[in-house]
Design brief:
This protein is α/β, with parallel strands linked by helices. It folds into two domains: 128 residues, Aspartate Aminotransferase, domain 1 (Alpha-Beta Complex), CATH 3.90.1150; 231 residues, Aspartate Aminotransferase, domain 2. Helix content is 42%, strand content 16%. Helix 2 runs antiparallel to helix 12, helix 5 runs parallel beside helix 6 and helix 7 runs parallel beside helix 8. The protein starts with 6 loop residues before the first helix and ends in an 8-residue tail after the last helix.
């Protein structure tokens, strides 16, 4: 065909401040990145504990390459399973105190495979309105009735539970730590409602796995409701510093997913060297008590500094949204941070609701106190007037 189908749509995205391009860095060490010869402090990474640069993990990957080669060569149920895959699944289950775990190539493939396998025609899904896109898409791919309740609103959730009492099975689906707002699902109340109304609970703990809870087991441990969560999904590409994802729960549930989750059945297996690296990362996380404590204390201190400088936001975690509002203004504000030597990215619809474009600031163990002081100084200069109020819990737009 001779007509250009895509250019007008791209032009419209650009006009609305929504056109995206991938940024290719020249180098990076977890703390900084280099772009076009300029070095920036990195404040938008999900590598929360800097394990992506841990020499023990890097050595495990090298040994895996020497032993198993580069790729797996097949799906897990054909010829793709190697010893590191089975060892990693066992280690994840032991770390989470679950009966079993199943690996996926990404968090997105885990959610879009697990949810349609678990919920079908005659079932109902009740999901937080600000869930990650992979959860939303997994719900849409299922043939279950799909209901969304206002963010963290347990009264609205209970009304939906009452409304859907006739469904065969009901699944409450939520993020544990919300990736764009940095707040937590009230899992204690949520699991209480699930028990009261005989519903099941599915938690995506991608951003909490390895960090939150007394032993880093995530939000279920933090709220003391581990026994009440039926399926926990997590990623190995954030606090674990690697790639891939998993679903964990009772062995019968995991065996069911192995047989029914299409994104598992029909995907080439994770490279065995990556599985070996992820295995070492999980082993490290299980004994990361001092590092985790140091990280969480640093987060608390940073939020105190934000409050002192009148930059306090609605978040109390290591994910801090700086809500600007309009997409174009958010892009312009991101550039002011770059000018100050701090690399952040503008997050715009569809990643966040219309009118809530933001800079998504993340803290990591790689950053020094001096790095964070530099960030605070840039924030004071770069954030538009009124941005502090925008980020307060009573002003945050939905």
């Amino acid at each position: 065909m001779t007509d250009d189908l895509f250019s007008p749509a791209l032009a419209e995205l650009a006009e609305n401040g929504l056109l995206r391009r991938a940024t290719a860095f020249d180098g990076g060490d977890g703390r900084t990145v280099t772009l076009d010869g300029k070095r920036y402090l990195l404040f938008c990474s999900n590598d929360y504990l800097r394990l992506s640069h841990d020499p023990r993990i890097i050595e495990a990957v090298k040994e895996g390459l020497d032993r198993y080669g580069f790729g797996s060569g097949g799906s897990r149920l054909i010829s793709g399973t190697r010893a590191p895959h089975a060892q990693l699944e066992k280690a994840i289950a032991e770390f989470l105190r679950a009966e079993a775990a199943l690996l996926f190539s990404s968090g997105y493939s885990a959610n879009t495979g697990c949810i349609p396998a678990l919920a079908g025609k005659g079932d109902a899904i009740l999901a937080d309105k600000l869930n990650h896109a992979s959860l939303v898409d997994g719900c849409l791919l299922s043939k279950a009735d799909f209901h969304r309740y206002p963010h963290r609103n347990m009264a609205a959730l209970e009304k939906l539970l009452q409304k859907t009492a006739g469904a065969k099975t009901r699944w409450i689906v939520t993020d544990g730590l919300f990736s764009m707002d940095g707040d937590l699902a009230p899992l204690d109340a949520l699991c209480g409602l699930a028990k009261k109304h005989h519903a099941r609970v599915y938690v995506d703990d991608a951003h909490a796995f390895g960090v939150l809870g007394a032993n880093g087991r995530g939000t279920a441990e933090l709220f003391g409701v581990g026994e009440s969560v039926d399926i926990t999904v997590g990623t190995l590409g954030k606090a674990a510093g690697g790639m891939g994802a998993f679903a964990a729960g009772k062995k019968s549930a995991v065996d069911f997913l192995l047989n029914k989750a299409r994104s598992f059945i029909f995907s080439t297996a994770m490279p065995p060297a990556d599985a070996a690296g992820n295995l070492k990362a999980v082993e490290i996380l299980a004994d990361f008590h001092e590092g985790r404590k140091r990280f969480l204390e640093g987060i608390e201190n940073f939020h105190t500094r934000l409050k002192v400088q009148n930059l306090e936001t609605s978040s109390k975690t290591y994910i801090i949204p700086l809500v600007i509002g309009e997409a174009g203004a958010t892009v312009s504000t991101a550039k002011l941070f770059w000018d100050g030597g701090v690399f952040l990215q503008a997050v715009r619809p569809p990643a966040v609701p219309e009118g809530t474009s933001r800079l998504r600031l993340t803290l990591s163990l790689a950053q020094t106190d001096e790095d964070r002081e530099t960030l605070l100084a840039v924030m004071k200069k770069a954030l538009p007037a009124g941005a502090e109020e925008e980020n307060g819990p009573s002003k945050r737009k939905r």
